[in-house]
Amino acid sequence: MPKDATPDPYAEPLGFGQRMQILRTRRGLSRPTVAGLLGMSPSWVKQVERGEIGMPRLPLILRIAELLRVRDLSDLTGDQSPPVSLFIGPGHPRLPAVRDAVNALTLEGDQEAPSASHLAARLARAWAARHRTANHREVLGELLPGLIRDAQLAVRQSDRAAERRAAQAVLSETYSLAQFFVAYQPDSALLWRIAERGMVAAQESEDPHALGVAAWLAAQAHRDTGPTHFDAADAMTTGALAHLERFLPEADDRVRAITGALQFEAGYTAARRGEAGTAWRWWDKAQRTAKKLDPGYYHPVTSFSHAIMGAHAVTVAVELRAGGESVRQAVAADRTAIPSRPRLARHRIEEARAYHLDGQPETALATLERAHQAAPETIRYNGYARRIVLEETESKFPARRQRAAALAGQLGLLAA
Q1: Which of 39, 192, 262, 368 is least enclosed, having the fewest CB within 10 Å?
Q2: For residues 59 and 159, what is the distance between their CA atoms, to the nearest angstrom?
């Protein structure tokens, strides 16, 4: 083969370092930035990418995979072993039924659509069931197909403008519930389709709460896609906040809560960027909004409330890679009650990240076990939890390896 010919990717497969460089560049991250977040030197990153240093051990590979938002470890390592998906969980058995309901063409037929108020009551019961149930995806997967079809039908059969707007608001928030079910499952196209339909329905409804919820979820979807979409996430949150501002003087707790949730999302994205000052300023704004809510209020979609602000502080500190501050916030937040099993499990995972970042892996594993007790399906679908567990299965301490392996088995990470 001529020296200047294009290499055969199968004869000359990409090495770990080349894959790391491609993924890093695709995420828009510089070598110094990656080095700082990994606790290594820029020269080390350069040597790895050039192949001058071999593939690191699994704990560091997992940290790199988390940083580069790698969905499957084989994308980074290039091996042909069974894939290990970090940020995408297993497909739930009820996913096909939910997908079919979303994709179906719902026409009038002979069925009379339920009223918007009836659908809103069903939707409220579905949110309540999600919060109190450990295996919440199983519950949502059973309820969602009927809710989606009936909400679509209600929009189709609405004759008056006000009635149609009310039905669109319920349809939008039904799509929001569906996003919680589909998130981190192996169908990203379906997730984006649901997000877009939810935003269209919210805009048609002219309901500030529905619009705020749709924007909150869309901002998360953009941010989770990676650093190149952070600007889109910011545009979504700031645009929604500007729209909601006019309603705040006479707003109820629902609208105030979605406003606070959007303020925190802006801070979350700033923390992902490493912008500590901006992240904590947005957290402060969200905290002030939370204090204006009724003390017992808990937003059914975003979990925004007095109780959640401590958990949000943990998330900001963890995303900023501030180990000591993360643990301090985790200890403070642990004194508050979160009346939602999946949200409590998510908080436990964030606490575990804090302890792991601070060099306390035993406490991190114990905290992940508590997350599993609260809501097994939450931790099973969470990439950060999976990364910590897999890393600790390589621990040099037998007791820790055994503990991590037991948890990995519960999460399905060791399935053949």
Answers
A1: 39
A2: 59
Residues 197-242 have pLDDT tens digits of 999 999 999 999 999 999 999 999 999 888 888 999 999 999 999 9
Judged by average pLDDT, the poorest of 31-40, 295-304, 307-316 is 31-40
Closest to 105 (Cα-Cα) out of 142, 159, 149, 164: 149
- The pLDDT tens digits for 70-126 are 767 777 887 644 455 555 667 889 999 999 999 987 776 668 889 999 999 999 999
Contact criterion met (CB below 8 Å) for 233 and 184? no
> Quick check: pTM over 0.85?
no
pLDDT tens column, 110-125: 688 899 999 999 999 9
The DSSP annotation for 194-249 comes to HHHHHHHHHHHHT-HHHHHHHHHHHHHHHHHH-GGGHHHHHHHHHHHHHHHHTTGG
Q: What is the identity of the amino acid at 354? A: A
* Separate counts of helices (H) and strands (E) for the chain: 21, 0
